[in-house]
Recover the amino acids of this structure.
């Protein structure tokens, strides 16, 4: 693998997975300079689907299965975008073969899996990032600046709602596919609260509902923090919700619409900041997926500086989130959680 610690290198990407996220990821990457990012190969279980996506995005090599991708010596980094239950297995395969990894969230289904991947990346001195794309939006930088400058005063409460009708999506119908409200939506809410408070909760209490097949389809949690601070998070896969985060301090409240991919920061009725996303060559499957370009560029920025973790989304935070999601799913009664 070529040395990547310089300011004028091209990052050679491989993509593991041919689903909707992979399409959006590739479409977003096309808006970045080709001098920095180039996709070498894509791999999937179904070679016909893999060829179709490769052809659409002008990728020269399509592999059936992931072993060939792992052994392709021209690839520097792999974007892992397979089913949730496969994230650990495929990320581990890539790391073991000397590839840097950007893995869709959740990086692992349990604390044990997530900690294992982090340990492996650190042992092999490879870059590993859980794809918490929210963290790389400019709105999060602006939010951090406003809070740290005292604009909200002392922050005492964070309230987040996230509801979308996805209970008919395959992974949320079958327990063995690794879906569910906590892993699909809840982790986004956790990362925002952690972004604000910068420390883990001292207590968390959750309730919610499971589907007939044992998949968690709703969750509501109260989180307790030091020094009188609290948070409430609620998510649902059977109905739409406000999909807004509100951060309240002694000097007022900041609101983030579409908090997991925000393009507007509402500081007050007369003070809003807005960012514009590029349209992209192809239509996106998901809301504001053009913002995946921020995450892709973060990878390049880190590797150009010789960093093996992103300071905006560290491996220790990924490990913390896995502990919290284990706890949430255990409290909901998802029986396959390993604490």
């Amino acid at each position: 693998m070529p040395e990547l610690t310089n300011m004028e290198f091209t990052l050679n990407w491989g993509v593991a997975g041919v689903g909707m996220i992979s399409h959006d990821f590739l479409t977003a990457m096309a808006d970045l300079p080709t001098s920095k990012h180039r996709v070498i190969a894509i791999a999937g279980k179904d070679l016909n689907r893999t060829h179709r996506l490769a052809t659409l995005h002008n990728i020269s090599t399509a592999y059936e299965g992931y072993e060939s991708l792992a052994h392709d010596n021209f690839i520097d980094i792999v974007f892992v975008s397979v089913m949730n239950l496969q994230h650990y297995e495929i990320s581990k395969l890539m790391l073991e073969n000397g590839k840097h990894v950007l893995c869709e969230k959740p990086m692992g289904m349990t604390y044990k899996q997530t900690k294992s991947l982090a340990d492996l990346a650190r042992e092999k001195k490879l870059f590993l990032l859980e794809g918490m794309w929210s963290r790389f939006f400019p709105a999060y930088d602006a939010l951090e600046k406003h809070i740290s400058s005292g604009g909200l005063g002392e922050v005492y409460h964070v309230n987040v709602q996230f509801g979308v009708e996805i209970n008919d999506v395959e992974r949320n119908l079958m327990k063995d596919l690794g879906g569910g409200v906590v892993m699909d939506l809840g982790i986004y809410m956790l990362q925002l609260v952690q972004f604000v408070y910068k420390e883990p909760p001292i207590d968390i209490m959750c309730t919610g509902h499971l589907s007939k097949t044992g998949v968690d389809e709703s969750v509501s949690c109260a989180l307790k923090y030091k020094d009188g601070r609290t948070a409430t998070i609620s998510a649902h896969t059977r109905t739409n919700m406000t999909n807004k985060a509100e951060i309240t301090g002694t000097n007022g409240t900041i609101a983030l619409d579409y908090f997991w991919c925000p393009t507007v920061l509402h500081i007050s009725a007369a003070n809003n900041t807005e960012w514009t996303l590029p349209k992209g060559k192809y239509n996106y499957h998901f809301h504001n997926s053009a913002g995946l370009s921020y995450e892709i560029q973060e990878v390049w920025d880190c590797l150009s500086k010789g960093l093996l973790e992103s300071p905006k989304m560290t491996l220790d935070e990924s490990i913390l989130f896995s502990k919290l999601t284990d706890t949430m799913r255990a409290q909901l009664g998802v029986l396959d959680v390993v604490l």
Q: What stands out?
A: The longest strand covers residues 155-163. The chain has nine helices and 14 strands. Residues 315-332 form the longest helix (18 residues). The radius of gyration is 20 Å.
